[in-house]
Amino acid sequence: MLTGFILCSLRVVATQKLRYPPNKIAVVGAGIGGTSAAYFLRQKFGKDVQIDIYEKGDVGGRLATIEMEGNQYEAGGAVIHPLNLHMKMFVKELGLSARTPSGDLLGIYNGDEFVFEESEWYIINLIKMLWNYGLNFLRMYMWVEDILDKFMRIYRYQTFDYSFSTTESLLHAMGGDDFITKLNITIDEAMQKSGFTQRFIDDIVGPAMRVNYGQGIEINGFVGAISLAGTDSGLWAVVGGNKLVCNGLIYAAKAQLIKGTVSSVQEKVRSTKSGNTVKLYEVSYATDTGTGLDMYDIVVIATPLNKDIGNIAFVGFDPPIETFSRPYQQTVTTFVHGKLNASFFGCSKASHFPLSEILTTDNPKLFIRSISAVSPTKPVPESHVSKASDLRVWKIFSAEVLTNEQLRQLFESYHAVKVKKWLAYPKYNPPEKLPPIILHRSIYYLNSIEWAASAMEMSAVAAKNVALLSHHQWYEKAEHIDQENLTERLKSEL
Ligand SMILES: Cc1cc2nc3c(=O)[nH]c(=O)nc-3n(C[C@H](O)[C@H](O)[C@H](O)COP(=O)(O)OP(=O)(O)OC[C@H]3O[C@@H](n4cnc5c(N)ncnc54)[C@H](O)[C@@H]3O)c2cc1C
Ligand SMILES: *[C@@H]1O[C@H](CO)[C@@H](O)[C@H](O)[C@H]1NC(C)=O
Ligand SMILES: *[C@@H]1O[C@H](CO)[C@@H](O)[C@H](O)[C@H]1NC(C)=O
Ligand SMILES: *[C@@H]1O[C@H](CO)[C@@H](O)[C@H](O)[C@H]1NC(C)=O
């Protein structure tokens, strides 16, 4: 038995020694997912591997700013939760800094009146909440807290090098059947089951889903809970723009950025100098100057594989690799520098209109999902702040591009408009079938996780998982993949 043990250990050592390190890794997409994948891949695979990141548009992807009157504003992914530990770590490591957007007074408009309106007085808010919704607000806070607690387990697993081969097993390791069940039901059903009132769900939860995911309470319970966590206090953003994290990560990862569009991935067999054969992936791409090919040991797809977004062909695979062309939800972001028309929201005197963030309930006659006054990504010197405070920069989310007529209704006057159209996040429709992470031997799909929930931190969590998973698969360390009962097992390891 002892000999068996020794032989067995020797074999493990031998296979690890024999396995050569990968030469080259391709990452497709330079959003927060791709750039954080490059960062974690460098950590795992060491300094010698070449890491190429392909990007067809701007670094940052769905993290982008737009310029208005000399200032930059977040046009895509805007706020980060205080417990998003990967994002926090990046900002610290990269020497960036955080800002906390000002606490605005919020109202929820149903097309006729405000069903909820915050005042500057904490005690008045509390009374209003209790009067209208009983203990639902407190309950929601506890409900979200419980989900966040479970979510936080992933950081510990990843610190101890554990990875997961499917998004389901990653979610299961965090929150057990509770998390998996949430993918199968709507946030409406999930909260009803937990005893929330329908009025609370329609008035308060629905508007939060609309502003964060452009969809209503029919989205899955997991993304719904993530969206509610986005109503917590202490949300922050990166000074200068969240996309700076992506630029910084490419640099920190010592990755090479290739400005080009990847069109296909194909498996090729090549013979080595020693007469053996190796299987590699051939990545085809187009740049401004022409087309190119390059060979890789590992490929990480860090973009949605939707035909309108990623549009990458996997050529000659048997069985074929599906490209999951399920629809993404369109969200139009409109920035307007102007004076809001308070009577549009049923208020007569503009000067007595205190709200700077308006969410809406699900009402087909409303052509906006939300509107809020926004501050620039860099603090503006006090002396430059206009004293005419009713003239502000507003950010509007809507399903379609707003017409001039609609803008004239919303604003008393305005003089600058900028529009950015996004395929923003999946169209959620539980029961949710999540795409695989492993598309082929060494092809990994990071954005599988978006079908559970799309957020910056979700992409970063998926990126670290793919870095760990690809490393463990490469060096055949199965004991670090899909382990069960990790919480129990890690209790003893401090
Ligand atoms: C309006 C809006 C508001 C949001 N608000 C928040 C928020 O407040 N907080 C939050 O956490 N999240 C928010 N999100 C979600 C968040 O922005 C995304 O989940 C996250 O940025 C996704 O990052 P990613 O790297 O996975 O994908 P992406 O950022 O989409 O990156 C993919 C990249 O791949 C590139 N690419 C695609 N195909 C190819 C190809 N064939 N070849 C080469 N390159 C290719 C794309 O150009 C893109 O740059 C918001 C999103 C939107 C649109
Ligand atoms: C969720 O639904 C799928 C079918 O869509 C089913 O296979 C699975 O068992 C369900 N999971 C849970 C935890 O309810
Ligand atoms: C403001 O809103 C009211 C009510 O919807 C509308 O009648 C009016 O035309 C809008 N525009 C201006 C400039 O007041
Ligand atoms: C995990 O824990 C459950 C319940 O404690 C147990 O039934 C199961 O066998 C454990 N799985 C493993 C792989 O240890």
Give the biggest sheet.
7 strands, mixed
State the end-to-end CA separation: 32 Å
Rg over alpha carbons: 24 Å
Ligands bound, unique: flavin-adenine dinucleotide, 2-acetamido-2-deoxy-beta-D-glucopyranose
Structural class: alpha/beta
Number of helices: 14
- Shape by Cα distribution: globular
Mean pLDDT: 92
Strand order of the largest sheet: 7-6-16-17-18-15-19
- The overall strand count is 21
Describe this structure in words.
This protein is α/β, with parallel strands linked by helices and 494 residues long. The chain contains 14 helices and 21 strands. Strands 7-6-16-17-18-15-19 form a 7-stranded mixed sheet. Strands 9-2-1-13-21-20 form a 6-stranded mixed sheet, with helices on one face. Helix 5 packs across helix 10 and helix 8 crosses helix 10 (221-229). The chain is globular and about 85 Å long. The chain starts with a helix and ends with a helix. Bound molecules: flavin-adenine dinucleotide and 2-acetamido-2-deoxy-beta-D-glucopyranose (NAG) (3 copies).
Can you give keywords for this protein?
binds flavin-adenine dinucleotide; binds 2-acetamido-2-deoxy-beta-D-glucopyranose; globular; six-stranded mixed sheet; 25% strand; single chain; 33% helix; alpha/beta
How would you summarize what this structure contains?
The chain is 33% helix and 25% strand. With 494 residues, it is of the alpha/beta class. The protein starts with a helix and ends with a helix.
